[in-house]
Each structure stands twice: as C-alpha cells, then as structure tokens.
Amino acid sequence: MLMELEKSLKGSTFIFCDLYKLFEEVHAQPEVYGFANVVDSCCIDVNGNQTRECTPGRTPCSDRGTHAFFDPFHPSQSMHKLWFQ
Predict the structure, then answer these.
(1) Residue 18, in any domain of the structure
(2) pTM of the entire structure?
C-alpha cells in the first residue's frame, strides 16, 4: 500500500515502523537511549499528578532531554528524534 501511495503522490515518501516496539525497548533499557526517566512527564498539571495537560505558565523540568514524555499524552522531543533516527 505504501508503494502505491508513493506512486500516486509523487514526491512523497512513506515510512512504516513499529513505534510500540521502540517504546518497549526504551522502557526496558532507558539508559541505552539516553533517558533517565521513562515514567514521569516533564511538566506538571494543575493537580500535580501528571494525568492532565500541563499547567499554563508553569516551567517544565530543566532536564527535558532525559524524559521520554513531555506531558502525559506526548512523547518528548528526544523521543521524536529517536523515532526519526
């Protein structure tokens, strides 16, 4: 299907990957991938329990590059970079 899409959408490139497997590997061996924290998000919500979106105006953690998640819903920039590598 991806090859058909590339043919019909000239100039497009599609990539198929197993992100779940990557998350499993990062969670099992975070230090191999440069992460110190694969459980907690980097920002704190209004309740302080990291289950909702970030509190507006509150500064996220200073070591964002070592967290796998920026908030409870989104991977960090470091995790996105790992996906593209």
Answers:
(1) no
(2) 0.71
